[in-house]
Amino acid sequence: KCFKQVGEGDAIVVVGGRTGRDGIHGATFSSGELTSEHETEFSHAVQIGNAITEKKTLDTLIQARDKNLYSAVTDCGAGGLSSAVGEMGEELGADVQLDRVPLKYAGLSYPEIWISEAQERMVISVPQANVEAILKLFSDEGVEATVIGTFGTPDRKLRLSYGETLVGELDTAFLRDGLPRPTKEAVWEKIDRPSPSPKHRERYDDTLLKILASPNVASKEWIIRQYDHEVQGGSVIKPLVGANQAGPGDAAVVRPVLSSYKGLAISCGMNPKLGDLDPYQSALHAVDEAMRNCAAVGGNLDRTAILDNFCWGNCNKPDRMGALVQSAKACHDAAMAYSVPFISGKDSLNNEFRTEDGQTIAIPPTLLISAISVIDDVHTCVSADAKEPGNYIFILGRTGSQLGGSHLLAVEGLASGTDVPPVDMVTNLKVMQALGSAIRAGAVRACHDLSEGGLAVTAAEMAFAGGLGLDLNIAGMPVNMNEPGPSPAALLFGESAGRFLVEVAPDKYDAFLRIVKDCPFGELGRVHAVGQLTIKSAGKTLIDMPTEQARAAWSGTFKM
User: Fold this and answer.
1) Which helix (H) or strand (E) holds 58?
2) Sign of the C-alpha dihedral, residues 36, 42, 47, 48?
């Protein structure tokens, strides 16, 4: 069922939504440099979605899949029917009757029917013996399904007809191989530019509050609450965690089948701040964070898969293409190092806008990595909120001195250098594997990964999510070898990859240490009943504030 096997003589069946003019040239529009005229010129290029039709279509497709009623399926994405049918029929050819395609309204020309990118449509290849059964299934579920042709022609050509008129004919070999592969120039030159040192402070309370209130870190509850994430009651770990849902989680966990305790962890990783500085390390950070977020809730790294989404500027420009090549190399290297497959992905290139005076504005090279991980028993999952006074707090992973791309520099108003924290994939994998073993063994009460804002932000989020306090001493944090020791600011706010804060109950202390003994770890302190966040180092208090003050800063930036 994982492989497409289009058969000679199979029926071409389009299912789901109807075809309209919306979405025509959507792929062309989204792949070009924007100007002030595009809003008018390409207003038709935006598809009109229908979530109910989509849900019904997908559910019925799953039923048909389980009954082995079709042999291949492709969604109508860029290019609509032209790409879906063209891809599926590239070996066998196809005869398509465009006049049979269900339309939203009359008046579409045959080219419009063929290239429309209207949403909620899928093309399936159905053996002739199953056509009647599959049409009945879709009809019973209230989803349109229409036979629009057959796969397989004697001369292996793709033929389009409208009524009795032949309106298109192309050799499938030409469609597949006729266009020469383009050659692009890629240039990337890393400039070594150290970041400025933040101002030394006796206390960093105000710095922490500024980072908690910064847009990338602050609460997104105003968005989360606009969607019902409790539909069908399958959510185990939700976007916001804690008894009062007062803090952010690392990954969502759902039970797709309520008769089973198997679950799925779903997470993502992205840091656009690093893209302009070092696209290779930026991509490694994205993969590492997505994997880390899955691991933090109990995801099984041996059963994890990832997806990419490249958001880039104009790749006809050598520097943009060079950054893309660096990022793609990093994806390969991370997939091999973590033994995790890329199962899908997409891209959104040419995200540039040309102003009326000829200036070009480009987005930073940005890679979003999504991860999905199988959990055998959702009862073993842990969330990020601190659980109980008296429990121990450990840090897993090493902290470096680099501050390139950090939120600390941003709130201090300092221009970042290119000293992005390097990702040690060998050590990080070992840490994530040990953490997973500890969670499945029941030795972990709470876990939160360190990302934007570093340790101080992570500690604050754990504390106010649980309505408790943390008393930490960071003098014993594991640090990177063979480099200068991190400053107090870097220990608090550095964004080195591969790190976690972990809460462990006293009766699991020895068991936890046995599991993580071969990893870099440090015991930092305890959970307290009093809602106070205190972080010390070398006998000095660096942060001391009520956790409610931290929560107020985090939750006050965006209002519902």
Assistant:
1) helix 51-66
2) positive
Question: Which pair of tokens denotes residue 336?
Answer: 């091999």
Q: What is the DSSP string of 174-209?
A: HHHH-SPPP-----------PPPPPPP-S--HHHHH
| Amino acid (1-letter code) at residue 155 | D
Tokens of 3: 């492989």
Q: With beta carbons less than 8 A apart as the criterion, state whether 418 and 197 touch.
A: no
**Within a 10 A sphere around the Cβ of 422, how many other Cβ atoms?**
17
Compute the CA torsion angle 240, 245, 248, 253 (nearest 10 deg). -40
Is 242 inside any structural domain?
A: no
My answer on whether 453 and 540 are in the same domain is yes
Other C-beta atoms lying within 10 Å of the C-beta of residue 364: 18
In tens, the pLDDT along 474-525 reads: 998 999 877 888 999 999 999 999 999 999 999 999 999 999 999 999 999 9
Which residue reads 């930490």 in tokens?
472
With H, G, I as helix, E, B as strand and everything else as coil, classify residue 167.
strand
Does residue 122 contact residue 77 with C-beta atoms inside 8 Å? no
Cα radius of gyration (the chain): 27
- Which residue do the tokens 């009651």 mark? 233
Predicted confidence (pLDDT) per residue in 539-556, tens digit: 999 999 999 999 999 999
The DSSP bridge pattern shows strands 304-311 and 342-348 to be parallel
Rounded Cα–Cα distance for residues 60 and 129 (Å): 19
CATH of the domain at 258: 3.30.1330.10
Q: Is 405 left (phi over 0), alpha (psi -120 to 50) or beta?
A: left
Which band of pLDDT confidence, cut at 50, 70 and 90, is reported for residue 356?
A: confident
Residues 366 and 472 in one domain: no
Query: 525: number of CA atoms within 13 Å, CB side?
Result: 18
* End residue of a domain, out of 326, 344, 379: 379
Residue 122 tokens read as 């899928």
- Residue 407 and residue 453 in contact, taking contact as beta carbons nearer than 8 Å: yes
Cα 194 from Cα 458, distance rounded (Å): 25
Q: Are residues 397 and 370 in the same domain?
A: no
Distances (CA, A) of 440 to 304, 429, 443, 501: 16, 17, 8, 17
Q: Which two tokens stand for residue 559?
A: 């209002």
Pairwise CA distance, residues 73 & 63, whole Å? 13
| Listed residue (85, 98, 99) closest to 151, CA to CA | 85
Q: What residues contact residue 14 under an 8 Å CB cut-off, 6+ apart?
A: 76, 81, 101, 102, 121, 122, 123, 145, 146, 148
Q: What's the start-to-end Cα distance of the chain, in Å? A: 44
The pLDDT tens digits for 56-112 are: 999 999 999 999 999 999 999 888 999 999 999 999 999 999 999 999 999 999 999
> Which domain, by its residues, includes 130?
11-177
Give me 364's structure tokens: 């930073």
